[in-house]
Amino acid sequence: MGTQEPLIIHYTNPGTWLPEVTASLKATVNKNSLSFDNEIGKGTIYKVDIDWGLGVRKMKAFFHQPVIFERDPVPDFDKGHYILLSNLGEQSIETTTTDQQFELGYTSEEGIYFSSPLLSSSFFIEPGKNYHVIYIIISHDRVKNFIARQPERQHDLLQSIIDKDKPIYHVEYLDASLLQMLKDIDEEMNDDRLNNLLIHSRTLEFCYQILSRIEQRNASDVVKIHPDDVVKLKEVRKQLSEGYKLACPPIEEMAKRTGMSPTKFKKLFRQMFGQSYYQYYKNVRMYKAKELLEKRKMNVSEVGYLLGYNNLSKFSRAFKSKFKTTPGKINSN
Fold first, then answer.
1. Phi, psi at 303, each rounded to 5°
2. In a shared domain, residues 83 and 179
3. Containing domain of residue 76, as a range?
4. Is the pLDDT of residue 332 over 80?
5. Is 1 among the domain residues?
6. pLDDT, tens digit (0-9, with 9 covering 90-100), for 242-287
7. Are residues 210 and 232 in the same domain?
8. Residue 220: other Cβ atoms inside 10 A
9. Which one-letter DSSP state was computed for residue 63?
10. Which three-class secondary structure state does DSSP give residue 163?
């Protein structure tokens, strides 16, 4: 049997993406979604327009044939939209921008994709696998408005995001805090959606975090990281993410493992992951605690002890400091 030819779906402006793909997917349009169940596949795409120049799309789908979503550059930059795309499914999405290719997925190193409207990009969907994608669109005017409201000292740095002569794309690791924001958005995007305010607040917070991290990457004190150091730092992050039950290894120990001085290690860790070493570890543990409590298979004491807290009062204080509520309330809701 020969290889199936992919269905190629072209679109230009993410702001009008939904109607542009409807015909290609032979989908039925509802008030805030479109759905399809045919020879192409089966799935639903939900739509929420939050405010001027800001919206969210969610796709949960299974395809019977290869599909490529091709985004073409916009002819009018000022009317274009930036995209923030994240894949919550276990299957990664082969993503191509200009001459760069990477695997987009929350379990991979590239969990979030941000792109200028002046860049082309393609997203390859394999058949026979489930996909779960959250797609945020931000108009050019909305990004300009965000920059204008930041302190003046940051303007020149942030202008690089909307530089017409040097359009950018950015790939970011989906850490625990960003993943939780997306999960909150995801849970509210369905046929019985009730909490648009939560979608609004989480989307704004998510966009702010990503734009801030892009700004940090472009700061004048950012240093070029050697590829070998990148690999070592990613391994450190993996150890912290998987070792949430263990005590945090001292910086000096981790620095020694990576062959760096403590000063260099701290600087490069913050530069790569947007947080200090200890803050990253703390966030991993707190978001894991929240996840376990929400599943309600363990009580507060069990979760606290699992994370190494012998003193449950200390666990409760750390949890409340992060989430502004007690672990008991999360566990009982």
1. -65, -45
2. yes
3. 7-217
4. no
5. no
6. 888 888 999 999 999 999 999 999 988 887 777 889 988 988 888 8
7. no
8. 5
9. E
10. coil
**CATH code at position 20:** 2.60.120.10
Instruction: Verify that 232 and 169 share a domain, yes or no.
Output: no
Q: CA angle 307-315-240, nearest 5°?
A: 40
Q: Which of 102, 106, 84, 82 is nearest to 94 (CA)?
A: 102
- Which residue(s) pair with 115 in the sheet? 83, 169
The set of residues, in sequence order, having a beta carbon less than 8 Å from that of 220 and lying 6+ positions away, is: none
| 328 CB-contact burial (10 Å; exposed 0-12 / middle 13-18 / buried 19+) | middle
Burial status of residue 62 (CB atoms within 10 A of its CB: 0-12, 13-18, 19 or more): middle
Rounded distance between C-alpha atoms, residue 240 and residue 172, angstroms:
18
Q: Is residue 143 part of a domain?
A: yes
∠ at Cα 77 (73, 82), nearest 5°?
Answer: 70
Listed residues 217, 237, 266: the one ending a domain: 217
